[in-house]
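Quick start: what a row looks like.
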Amino acid sequence: VCVTHQKNRAACDMKPLKETDILDAYKRAVGRLLGDAGEILEIVKAATKEGLDLPDTQSLDNIEEKLIRTRKKVLELFKDKRDGNIPLAEYETRYADLSNQIVELERQESEVKVRNIESQLAQKRLDDALALLSNPRVDYMDDAVIRHIVDVIKVNGKHELEFQFKCGVDIKEDM
């Protein structure tokens, strides 16, 4: 039942849906998903891989190399100051510049690492969904399986449900 409808029937004219009707629509959606499984799996793989940023190890390596070089410059700057080879004003200016570079490189490094982790998690979800969909012995009516493969069930009006599967496929079913 729509929560808005429960609180104020005038605000939403949506009628309650029977669980059995939702499950029947789910069965049809899964049937369509599995009926076209080969084609859908390939579409899902392609779409997901396009959407995934593959781990960016080269960019991460470049950032880490720049960080090492910049940190070495800071150490050399400290030595020059200690040995009296650099005026204090120049030291402070160069130190501030190098510090800003390090902060920016660390921010970039963190962003790349987060993107790589998100990519790996998305790839894992895709692999799990594909393995589940490819297994002929899976009971798709099992509550745990439903929770594992369905991300969201949307009610799109009085006669349509939309099943958003975690693998990236959306299937609309009439009630």
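That is the whole record. The chain has a mean pLDDT of 80. Helices lie at 3-7, 19-35, 37-51, 57-82, 88-134, 143-149.
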